[in-house]
Design goal:
Length: 323
């Protein structure tokens, strides 16, 4: 009986932990003040360039993700149920989207990416779909609608288009998906759990030049690497071979620059880490605060072809750009 009670107690703790994590993931209401009030270990880190804050009458409210191409920077302005577009100089241009469940409408716009045609793909976490817009914000169609209809993609979060492939994470399904540009499913990776190749509310996703897939396994406080066929390779969490205690607390966005440096956002400690190709930490930037170069619950991260690093500074209601 005593052993049975222990198991019941452990199960209740696990359920409570999952509930708390889900709340933090979706609401971002409180953070851990680590005392990191300035840029730490900045050698090799990019320098602050500018901030994007939205239009005058209706500023950004809970910006969750960002992407950029040669013409526009797009930000998922999540609590305003829309997407904002800026020019390369950071000037606000226009917005698109509104609250709702129909075409061109959002409930929780999150992951955002553009393809080589300039089309904008937006993952809606609550509506459970991915919408495609033209570069000016006109709705075109849903991406891979059959994947949403059959429940395979139910809560898409992060979204990246790389080398004509669409990479998506689904936090409730605890999976990562890879599609071709026509919406054909190429790979399905993961299931719920803590073992290698398993996820707990995966978030950020990207791929390197060799096609290896990097998934931010948020609830398990780590980044998992898979080869282009979806086979597990290794874990990165700031410790030796990913086997020790993680330096991440609620990790989110991820991206690579042209040097091969991998950037990972640690949301609840308000910092961004840089790692080399071997998974060794080479710099740490940020810290809790409102000044330029500081963050309050950063989330999304994107690195453009010119190595500009865009980071959504969620509670500070801005996107910071570094280069």
């Amino acid at each position: 009986m005593k052993r049975r009670n222990v198991f019941i107690g452990m199960a209740l703790i696990a359920i409570a932990t999952a509930a708390v994590f889900t709340f933090l993931f979706l609401n971002n209401t409180k953070a851990v003040d680590t005392g990191l009030l300035k840029v730490l270990d900045p050698q090799g880190a990019p320098n602050y360039s500018m901030s994007l804050t939205g239009d005058f009458d209706k500023p950004l409210k809970k910006p969750m993700d960002v992407t950029a191409n040669e013409s526009f920077t797009y930000v998922s302005d999540t609590d305003n149920k829309r997407v904002l577009a800026f020019d390369v100089g950071g000037n606000f241009l226009f917005s698109f989207g509104e609250d709702g469940q129909g075409e061109g409408q959002f409930k929780f716009p999150y992951g955002i990416s553009t393809d080589e045609k300039g089309r904008v793909f937006v993952a809606d976490l609550y509506n459970g779909n991915i919408s495609i817009f033209d570069e000016k914000g006109k709705f075109i169609e849903y991406f891979a609608p059959e994947a949403s209809k059959d429940g395979k993609v139910s809560s898409p979060a992060a979204l990246r288009i790389i080398d004509k492939k669409v990479y998506v994470t689904d936090i409730k399904a605890n999976k990562a998906y890879v599609f071709d540009m026509k919406g054909k499913l190429l790979l399905e990776i993961g299931k719920h759990g803590t073992n290698d190749g398993e996820f707990n509310a995966p978030n950020g996703i990207t791929a390197d030049e060799e096609g290896n897939i990097y998934v931010v396994d948020t609830g398990n406080q780590r980044v998992q690497i898979f080869d282009k066929k979806g086979k597990f390779v290794k874990i990165i969490n700031g410790s030796n071979n990913g086997k020790g205690e993680s330096i991440f607390v609620n990790p989110r966005g991820i991206g690579f620059d042209s040097r091969g440096i991998m950037y990972v956002v640690s949301n609840l400690t308000h910092v961004v880490y840089g790692f080399d190709k071997d998974g060794k930490k080479v710099f740490q930037m940020g810290g809790m605060g409102e000044q330029n170069g500081q963050f309050y619950l950063p989330n999304g991260l994107f690195v453009d072809q010119n190595d500009n690093v865009f980071i959504t500074d969620t509670v500070n209601l801005r996107v910071q750009v570094f280069n």
